[in-house]
Automatic annotation (TrEMBL):
Domain of life from the UniProt record: Bacteria
Species assigned in the record: Alkalibacterium putridalgicola
Keyword Transmembrane included in the entry's annotation: no
Keywords of the record: DNA-binding, Transcription, Transcription regulation
Family per record: Belongs to the LysR transcriptional regulatory family.
HTH lysR-type domain location: 1-59
Annotated GO MF terms: DNA binding; DNA-binding transcription factor activity
Full protein name: DNA-binding transcriptional regulator, LysR family
Xref: Pfam families: HTH_1, LysR_substrate
């Protein structure tokens, strides 16, 4: 005797021995239900129902005993399954995520607290580094999830990329800078200008150097740094110009620094990346999908 047989038996009793109604509730055919009950009685050598003219009328004494025990067993079984499902749905574990500092400051200030507070059993480790280093960590399988900038240079056949933010790069400078009076900048305006930019571990560095090379623009690179807030701060009391993602302007305010857009801007596309695999850990899959869906909404 198994749980399915007991469940079928209980349904027949609770529909007042109406086989047609019980079969509809159970989503099985009436012949299949009849065969299941007949098999139960035969295998257990029991007569569970009183019958008249081929129809079920009531329970036999053996049927009464089975009904009482079956109700209790099925209720406990259902409770057990529910508890197991809840336990399996309760995510536990740890996850490492790589995010560039400027991205974590302007793209992730809202999602990370929500993600962490709603999953107290997951331990998050965030690595802040440039896109070049994070790309290497992803390929070496040291980080399961990283946030990079396009173009990533990754093979889309082996890596899944999801765009979560698209914006532009802007110039930031002191309001006294000679270029501050222009409505918009052209890249040639930066020729021979003193600049502070991200160092070569950051994708923005390579985007800028490629742009400068293609237009034969030669700025004076006085400072290269991995710190976006340092790059901003050095423009406050000098003629240094830096180029950063436009959203930085929404999170950083200084009356001494202004932002200028470019006529033909470089686009800043932030992508969520992971290696393509047949299977992912439950925690990794949950976190990746949570982040993807959050920015898709």
């Amino acid at each position: 005797m198994d749980i399915k047989q007991m469940h079928y038996f209980i349904s027949i009793v609770e529909t007042d021995f109406n086989m047609s109604q019980a079969s509809k509730i159970l989503h099985v055919s009436q012949p299949a239900l009849s065969q299941t009950i007949a098999g139960l009685e035969k295998n257990e050598n029991l007569t569970l129902f009183e019958r008249a003219h081929g129809r079920l009328q009531t329970l036999t004494p053996a049927g009464e005993v089975l009904y009482q025990y079956a109700k209790e067993i099925v209720e406990k079984y259902d409770a057990m399954i529910e508890d197991l499902q809840q336990e399996s749905a309760h995510l536990r574990g740890s996850i490492k995520i790589g995010i560039p500092p400027v991205v974590i400051s302007v793209v992730f200030p809202e999602i990370l607290p929500k993600l962490i507070s709603s999953n107290p059993e997951i331990r998050f480790e965030i690595k802040e580094a440039g896109a070049v280093e994070l790309k290497k960590d992803l390929l070496l399988q040291e980080l399961p999830i990283v946030v990079l900038l396009r173009p990533t240079g990754l093979d889309l056949g082996t890596v899944e990329e999801v765009v979560i933010r698209k914006d532009t790069l802007s110039a930031f400078m002191c309001k006294e800078n000679p270029l501050a009076g222009k409505e918009k900048l052209e890249w040639k305006d930066l020729h021979n200008q003193p600049m502070a930019i991200f160092d070569s571990t950051y994708m923005i560095h390579h985007q800028l150097m490629n742009k400068f090379s293609s237009l034969q623009v030669k700025p004076q690179l006085y400072l290269q740094s991995a710190s976006w807030d340092l790059l901003l701060n050095v423009t406050r009391n000098s003629n240094l110009i830096t180029v950063l993602p436009t959203p930085v302007d929404y999170y950083y305010f200084s009356p001494d620094v202004i932002r200028k857009e470019f006529e033909s801007p470089i686009y800043w596309e932030v992508v969520l990346c992971r290696r393509k695999q047949k299977r992912y850990s439950r925690v990794e899959d949950y976190v990746f999908n949570y982040m993807r869906d959050y920015y898709k909404a």
